[in-house]
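Weekly structure sync, notes
Attendees: PL (lead), two postdocs, one rotation student
Agenda item 3: pending single-chain targets
PL asked that the sequence for the first pending target be pasted directly into the notes so everyone works from the same version. It is reproduced below exactly as submitted, 163 residues in total.
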Amino acid sequence: MASSVSSQFWTWYERHHTLHLGITAILFTWQLAHLFWLTTHVVALRLFGVSYFPHSPTLQLLLVIADYAEIPALIGASLLYINTFRKKHNWKDVGYLVLINSQWLHLFWITDEFVVDMFTGKTTISHLPFWLAWVAIGIDYLELPVIYDTLKQLLGVLRGRKR
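Predicted structure, written out during the meeting:
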């Protein structure tokens, strides 16, 4: 029974592969807004003592969209790489799965709020080490190869080439 449901799911997924790939690529591309904020505000503030992030309601809205898009992006990308891995076992897909699923650690344990609080000295979580904030930032940047790969795959499919 479970095998049948799994088989039906992957058949359906394959039939709508371009749609799933497009949604995943778009959702992950939204993460660039978050990485822009992270670099120009959080990292710049810590390293240079000044924020280069141009605060505006529009940019704040983009950040909110990026935050809400991250979980569906992680799920969509995981399905994308699981599907390609089940068809052809390769280390590249395993690597991308590890990179994107490391984001769960950042989402549910080392949050952006923790990072900002640690860098500004406003944290009430004194039992966590300062270097953990840099680990969280590093985890965020692990999305970049996946963003690149999903966009490259989408452009290839749209141009008529398979992965």
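Discussion points:
- The chain has a mean pLDDT of 86.
- Residues 2-158 form one domain.
Action: rotation student to compare against the earlier draft before next sync.
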